[in-house]
Amino acid sequence: MIPHSIQKHIDQSPDKQNYNNHKHHVFIITDAGRPVYTRYGDETELSSLIATMGAILEKYKIYFFKDGNAGFFKYLNDFYINRYSKQKITIKTQL
After folding, report:
1. 48, burial (CB in 10 Å: exposed 0-12, middle 13-18, buried 19+)
2. Distance between the two ends of the chain, CA-based, in angstroms?
3. Pairing mode, if any, of strands 64-67 and 70-75?
4. pLDDT at 1
5. How far apart (Å, rounded) are the C-alpha atoms in residues 95 and 77?
6. What is the mean pLDDT of residues 30-41?
7. What is the pLDDT of residue 61?
8. DSSP per-residue codes, the chain
9. What's the pLDDT tens digit per position in 8-29?
10. What are residue 27's DSSP bridge partners?
11. What are phi and psi of 42, to 5 degrees?
């Protein structure tokens, strides 16, 4: 059984207005790109979003770049996307 604290945002999805208001989104995926966990929403409903992000990041093999308020960071074989201007070491420490 999944704890209640994990299920409290399961009804959210990217097409709902409040989904983008959260400060931190967490996506855990397998090496094959299958979603295992997402902090907000249901990972099965977000599989196309996660697959798209993974394909874009894998194609370009970029290690760190910033685009407006979003920072994209690849550490070894793991991808981290930071929406705010945090240092790479801060992102790694949070994870």
Report:
1. exposed
2. 25
3. antiparallel
4. 45
5. 14
6. 75
7. 54
8. ---HHHHTTTT--TTSGGGGG-S---EEE-TTS-EEEESSS-TTTTHHHHHHHHHHHHHHT-SEEEETTEEEEEETTEEEEESS---HHHHHHH-
9. 666 666 666 666 676 777 777 7
10. 38
11. -100, 125
Which tokens belong to 32?
Answer: 């094959």
**41-67 residue pLDDT tens:** 777 777 777 778 777 766 655 455 566
Query: Token pair for residue 93?
Result: 């420490």
* Cα–Cα dist 19/85, whole Å: 20
Contacts of 25 by beta carbon, 8 Å cutoff, 6+ apart: 38, 39, 40, 81
Tokens 């097409």 identify what position? 15
Q: Report pLDDT for 41.
A: 75
